[in-house]
Amino acid sequence: MAIKKFKGYVSDEPILIQLESPDGSVTTEFKCRQAVAGSTILNFLAQTDEDDPATMAKAVFGLLESALESDQWEAFREFVDNSDNGIDLETLSEIAGWVSEQFAGRPTQPSPLSLAGS
After folding, report:
1. Which of 8, 10, 81, 111 matches a 20 to 30 Å C-alpha distance to 104?
2. pTM of this prediction exceeds 0.70
3. Which helix or strand (DSSP H or E) is residue 16 part of?
């Protein structure tokens, strides 16, 4: 029998999203959760289809709602829903892509220090 143990990991490093209006008059920052389930990232990747805008929209908002701290979601939606702030579909997709990279790129566990050569 083969067994391999996998241990979860939650990073202490914060992930922040800064949004700015086109003229720079409004800037705001949103804090993401410490962790997002790997299955959420996989669902986002599976649903990102540029040929199907409805599925893409659902995937982008699903990921962002899962990634942002719960008390940040409404303020984020207010900012991006305000057309004066200029956050278009391409920008939202870019934000979601960046967020998924941040969470997917985190280590699954702290890397042990190498004792090789000691």
Report:
1. 81
2. yes
3. strand 16-20
Is the distance from CB of 55 to CB of 46 less than 8 angstroms? no
User: What string of DSSP letters covers 29-54?
Assistant: EEEBPS---HHHHHHHHHH--TT-HH
Residues whose CB is less than 8 angstroms from the CB of residue 9 and which lie 6 or more positions away in sequence, other chains included: 106, 107, 108, 109, 110
Select from 43, 11, 22 the least CA-distant residue to 86: 22
Helical axes 38-47 vs 89-104, angle rounded to 10°: 140
H or E element: which one contains 19? strand 16-20
Interval 25-70: pLDDT, tens:
999 999 999 999 989 998 888 887 777 878 888 889 999 999 999 9
Distances (CA, A) of 115 to 5, 18, 112, 118: 22, 39, 9, 6
Q: Which CA distances in Å does 43 have to 17, 19, 46, 66, 105?
A: 21, 25, 5, 11, 16
